[in-house]
Amino acid sequence: MNLSRRTLLSALAAVSAVRSVQAKPIVDLGAIGHEHGLMFGSAFDREIFRDDAYRALISANCRIGSIENSLKFDWLRAKGPVADFAMADRLVTFATDTKIQVRGTGLIWNDWAPDWLKSLSASEIAATLDRHVDETVSRYAGRMQSWDVVNEPFYPPHHTQDGYRKGPWLDSMGKNYIARAFRGAAAADPNARLVLNEAFCEQDDELGRSIRPSLLSLVTELKHAGVKLDAVGFQAHLKPHLPFDDQAFAAYLDRIAATGVDIYITEFDVDDSSLPDDLAVRDRMVAERCTKFLSAVLAVPHVKALICWHLSDRYSWYKSADWYARAVRSFGGDPTRPVRTHLADSALRPKSDWLSVARAMDARPRA
Ligand code: 9MR
């Protein structure tokens, strides 16, 4: 019996025995991932400085961590071009001190652009991109494992040419903003892994299926142009009510990897809005979706990272998403019920999906 099987068995016992708030994690997911060639981790942000128990959960389980918001353009430069790096500095220092490899997310994203940026001319927006990328990436040079340099380049419902997501960066530079951001990031920190991050591709619906070929063409184009692109990130906010074909998605990941990049799963969680109110039933369905998805995706050897978009329902972003309560109601659920979207509940107790993740990682060949 190897170490991870032993820890898994004790985890199974512990999950059924846990009754009170538990700061101490029952399984070191980071260690299980590491044994199987996978960086496991989570997003986190400023809440870790006021929540000791959550900080302990993050520290004990994450070998890698994404800064959820504090390195995004609109968080750093909310009011104008001059950045406030105070919180980002604290978070990067925390991660470094805790030996969590740290990632920046949303360096350039057409969504959530502040009004002051939208009011600039095209040439000013281009200069702002160069300044933001250079200043931000060079500030943390040598300390970042990776950057999601461009987030969510595609959104076909915007009806632009080739399905690109609308916003000030695209509007002012066309799709060249992407290569430009990557070139700037590579110059500012030659050691960080540079990642193109995309949403929805794991869904086998019209949206997911329409983004996949466009993303593959973009990745191929960037590689041919000699742009430093080390990995493609797939967010994987799973929506059980949509069609999925996990094997087809895994085959797509193989095609992406064949261009010479690694694959990261960057924002893993499960949207439970369509699932029944009953907690036991909902948790089982969430865990089943995790198991199915991860057993297909983690079988792809080029998948090198699995990052949850928070580890606990306590910090589930779904709670603050304006559409979430409406979605629960539209599926016939009670919009005031607790969310069950993450691996641990709001009291930080691991749920069945925690074990789904542990088992799926354990099923990979040992590194
Ligand atoms: O979880 C993030 C939330 O706190 C922010 O308000 C929001 C806008 O910056 O972004 C959320 O994270 C998103 C991520 O950056 C990109 N993929 C979708 C995530 C959930 O909306």
Give structural notes.
With 367 residues, this protein is of the alpha/beta class. It has 2 domains: 1-68 and 199-216 and 232-253 and 262-367, no CATH class; 72-150 and 164-195, TIM Barrel. Helices cover 43% and strands 14% of the residues. It is built from 14 helices and 10 strands. The chain has helices at residues 3-17, 29-35, 52-61, 73-76, 86-97, 115-118, 122-139, 168-173, 176-188, 206-224, 246-257, 279-297, 324-330, 352-362, and strands at residues 39-44, 64-67, 101-104, 108-109, 144-151, 193-198, 231-234, 237-238, 262-270, 303-308. The protein has an 8-stranded parallel β-barrel, surrounded by 5 helices. Bound molecules: ligand 9MR.
Mean pLDDT: 94
Low-confidence segments, ≥5 residues, pLDDT <50? 13-25
Count of discrete structural domains? 2
Terminal-residue CA separation: 16 Å
Question: Which secondary-structure class do the elements indicate?
Answer: alpha/beta
> What small ligands are held by the chains?
ligand 9MR
- Our count of helices gives 14
Query: What is the CA-based Rg, rounded?
Result: 20 Å
Largest sheet: 8 strands, parallel, barrel
Query: What letter string, H or E per element, gives the SSE order?
Result: HHEHEHHEEHHEHHEHEEHEHEHH
Care to count the β-strands?
A: 10
Strand order of the largest sheet: 1-2-3-5-6-7-9-10
Residues in β-strands, percent: 5-15%
Looking at the structure, what is the overall shape?
Answer: globular
The helical percent reads 40-55%
